[in-house]
Amino acid sequence: MQSSESVLTQARAALAHVPFHGHPQHPVIHMRLDHGALLLEGEVADIVDKTRTAAQMRRVDGVSSVIDHLRVADGSNPVGDGELRAAVCDRLLDDIDFRNCRISARAKGRSNELRAAGEDSAGEIEVGVADGVVTLSGHVISLSHLRLAGVLAWWVPGCRCVVNELKVEPAEADSDAEITEALRLVLETDDFVDAEQIGVHTEGRVVTLDGCAVTDAVRRRAEQDAWYVQGVENVVNRIELAG
């Protein structure tokens, strides 16, 4: 069995090969290993750098899991935790896929129910925010709902990291097909994207997008949505511009 220092040395070497497209030089990332679980902390430029870093660390021999607490740089106007928490809750409350979910907000150690579960309860989601980091806890009815909740949080301006602690009840086995299904749901939810014009294929947690988009902004938006989906490790964007 390798020592913790040996595993960390390999992880630091692997980090040097991550293509940080959003930085002129590699960002400072702190690592801590606890019984094979590698905790990542620091700041990166965007969700692409965050996802690529975590994916690279999962390939390091001796790392059994990665706890990704990397934050993305906040290029927008600063948003207070209360404002961010309210905005995430509003997203969940407005989304049709969570209409039967109990939604609550956690602030100052207390949980405030914003909506009770519907007659056909689809779970419960509690939203907490600290220093721009959104934590989702509770349970939902499918992996697609778990992933969609995370993306809805990422879409809110000022969100720097999403810690998705939601559970699926009853439990489901994850797969590439589940990632594809979740991304299709995300694209259908995104008003900026015509989901019917975009194809999605996932293999080995690598998502390939094809089809067409009316503008380059829409093309890039669809790719961004894919990077936000929990479990995705890379995205290949083959969407072409219409006309």
From TrEMBL:
It holds the Pfam family BON. Transmembrane segments: none annotated. Signal peptide: none annotated. Residues 3-74, 99-170, 175-243 form the BON domain. This is Phospholipid-binding protein. It comes from Cupriavidus malaysiensis.
